[in-house]
Each structure stands twice: as C-alpha cells, then as structure tokens.
Amino acid sequence: MSSEPKISTVNIGIVGAGLMGQLAHAANYATIDECRIAAIAEHKPERRRLVAERYGIPRTYSSHEELLGDAEVDAVAVATSRPKIGPIALDCLNAGKHIITEKPMAATVEQAKILVKAARDRGVRYAVGYMKRHDEGVQTAKKIVDELLQTGELGEVTFVRSHCFTGEFYCNIDGQIITDEKTSESSQEWAIAPDWMPNEYKQKYARFLNVYCHNINLLRYLLGRTPEVKFVEFKQSDGQVAVLDFGSYAAVLEAGSLTYRGWDEVTEIYFTRGRLRIEHPPGMLRNVPAKVELYKGKDLLHEVYTPVCGWTWAFRRQAEAFVRDVQEGLEPIASGADALEDMRLVEEMWRQQISKG
Predict the structure, then answer these.
(1) In angstroms, what CA-CA distances link 248 with 69, 160, 177, 225, 330?
(2) Which of 11, 27, 55, 83 would bridge 38 by S-S if both were Cys, CB 3.0 to 4.6 A apart?
(3) How does pLDDT run across 110-125, given as a tens digit for each residue?
C-alpha cells in the first residue's frame, strides 16, 4: 500500500455523456458512498444539463479542458469516442488527475507509451476499463487458477481457449438520456492504427482492438503471464484465430461475430486432470456475473464445482475499485502500464497477418 494519505471522498469528473458515460460510469459513481460526481463535461448542452440533473452533478462544462481547471476534481472517468480517448487522457494525466478510461487505452503502442509515461511522471493512478477483470466470477476463477497452479492438484496447464463471438452487448439496457442536438466537437483525435499499417487494414485493426483486447487482457490476467504470438489468421472478420505461446502450453483466441440475441464468450483452461470454464455475460447485462465451473477428474471419478457469486455487475465493481485505488494510492489491477502489453500483442498479431498478405 502506498504511503500517500487516504482521500476520504473522491471527487469524480465525467468526460462524455453518451451511453457508456451515463450508464457504465455516472450511474455507478453516483451511488458509491466514498465518492461524488463533482462535474461533467459534455459538448451537447441539453444532454449535459439533463444528465447533470439526473445524477445531481453540481457543475457542468462544455469541454474536458474546462473540467480540468476545476480544482475540486480529483479523478476523471473518460468515456468518449475511441480516437478522442488518448489525447483527453493525456490532458488529464498532465493536469495531475487520476483517470480511468474506456478500453482500449489508445490505438497504438507508441500512443500507449506516452500515456503510461505521463501517469508515471505525475504519480497518479491510471486505470483502463477492462471491467471483466473486476467481474466477481472472473475474480473467483482467478483465485482458483492461482491455487491450482500453486498446489498442482490438477497437474499442469495443457491448453487454453478464449472464444468470443459477439452478439447483443447492450442487452436493451434502459435509462440513457438521448437528445437530438447537432453540435460540432473540436477535440483532438489520435490515429486509429499504427503509421506502418496499410490503409486497407486500419478499420479492421481498430475493430479487432476495440472488441478483442478484452480477451487478450483476460488471458494475461488469469494466467499471470504475457505470451508470444505464434500464428494468426484474420482474413475473415467474422471468424478469426490467433495462437499464443505461453511457454509450456498454447492458447487459442477465437474471435468473431454473429447475428445472435445473446453473447457467446467462454474462457477455458485445461489441466492434466481437469478444466476450468468461465462463461462471460454481455457487458451491459446488469447484475449477472460470469459463471464458473471447475471439473476435477481422477481415474473413473470426477467432481464438478460451481461456485456461486452474488448478483453483481462488473462495471459497478470496476467503479468501486477505482475509487478505492484513488483513496488508498493503490495500483489498479487493470493499470495503463499493464494494458500496454495488450497493445503490443495486438500490433504483433496484425504485423503477422499483414506479412502473410
């Protein structure tokens, strides 16, 4: 734990009042006792006013630059369009504000390095919105994996499978304030892909990074290691495969999408004598954590263990963790420095795909 003095109440600033800014961030921070939303920045004036009224936010600003001039704001949650996240995050960090942003943290390794350096130089907490790490089911699974690796009860890890075919992420979630305002937003944007990448690949890369960085991040979190990229086949956007080398075993990432009223995402870790399976819910399905199943096999006997989690939501737990990290000066479990490794892996995947032609 840091020697920094504990902050009794964290004053949060929200940048961006779209669906995610409202329902994944403001709605959660507004109900956490240890913090208060002190200000919101949104370029649409009517939406800004209505959101502030709903969540009892005392001060509103038309830009993040104005919000950063608010001395009362301790930390900022950034939920804007992807190309704007990086430059806004950099401004927040340079202003000495703790931040949490939506994922991915940036679009390139070089952009991400700039952000990580700024956070380190200013000594502030920098969290990236990999809310799945905060899912109660995922954290239960993480404890099980750590224990199995330590005790060797089920032998060694032999294979890992991460499968994500997207469906309905938003789950008809309600409560968003929508206005028909037409305004121009002048915030700076960063490139959506590396300079070395041919133009015909950039949109495909940006979509892959936005969706499947979650799965790469989860693999690294659960297994406690960063793999090497051994093989990719990304020709078809609705069915992509990557093989990752974790040293003594391989992991396969299966990425795609389909027309589906549901969400098809599973992580499976195979051991010599068993298997851990995590079934992940769609992100905006409130109060439904991941389902965990542990299979233990020995000779002709077997045991299936299904730990029960509470009715919790990953986005709510992420907000609570960020407030706690700021209060106590803790390093977030999904820090910017850690997320930089996801950026490296995704870029390497696409380097290999492009080299194949």
Answers:
(1) 51, 11, 50, 12, 32
(2) 11
(3) 999 999 999 999 999 9
